[in-house]
Amino acid sequence: MEDVEGSVPVPAVAARVFGDGLPGAERFAALLERFGVERGLIGPREVERLWDRHLLNSAVIGERIPAGATVVDIGSGAGFPGIPLALARPDLTLTLVEPMARRVDWLGEVIEDLGLAIKVLRGRAEERAVRAELEPADVVTSRAVAPLGRLAGWSLPLLREGGMMLALKGASAQEEIARDEAAVARAGGGTPKVSECGVGVLETPTTVVIVERIRARKSAQEKRRRNAAAVRPKRAE
């Protein structure tokens, strides 16, 4: 990409959040400022809020991710939370999953420009072909992708047992949990919990819904086999 220089001030706290990855974060912000609106990645009003609302908001979820974890970010869009997370946590192994071709192109360009070791996979998390490409992950992240129940159905099958789904949510997090907790359980998840990331660091901490994968979701075919076995009469001795 061409040389660009951002005009949006870099918050002082960014150095604390990104550490050695701050130059990359500044470059990413400048690229979004220059190309994000014209390429339909962010709205015009988001330019002035790139740091607080997008980069820092995404990066601080690294607080909830173990060292050296494998992470799949679904519905990455312009690169959130995956790109800031990779810049703040270079120890992570990241794969970005995004269905739209123009956004996949953008992600590939940014990754090459920033020199990040990240894989981009085009498709939707619920597609069989996408799942076949991915090893069971330690963590699946998402931001503004879908309601919690649907999101659990897409995210939890990508996790190893004991892995975590981290969904960035807003003020409606508790309402979503109350509404969708049964759907999360059917998808193989434990009790959803709300957590805040960046407390004492960001003026407005990031709200995250955390769900542990406690069991594998059984396929319809497997359920039919189990039901058939249960009702099959025993052979006489």
Automatic annotation (TrEMBL):
NCBIfam families from the UniProt entry: rsmG_gidB
Alphabetized UniProt keyword annotations: Cytoplasm, Methyltransferase, rRNA processing, S-adenosyl-L-methionine, Transferase
Protein name, entry field: Ribosomal RNA small subunit methyltransferase G
Function statement: Specifically methylates the N7 position of a guanine in 16S rRNA.
Subcellular location: Cytoplasm
Enzyme Commission number(s): 2.1.1.-
Family per similarity comment: Belongs to the methyltransferase superfamily. RNA methyltransferase RsmG family.
GO MF entries: rRNA (guanine-N7-)-methyltransferase activity
Binding residue positions for S-adenosyl-L-methionine: 75, 80, 125-126, 143
Lineage: superkingdom: Bacteria
Organism of origin: Amycolatopsis rhizosphaerae
InterPro entries associated with the record: rRNA_ssu_MeTfrase_G, SAM-dependent_MTases_sf
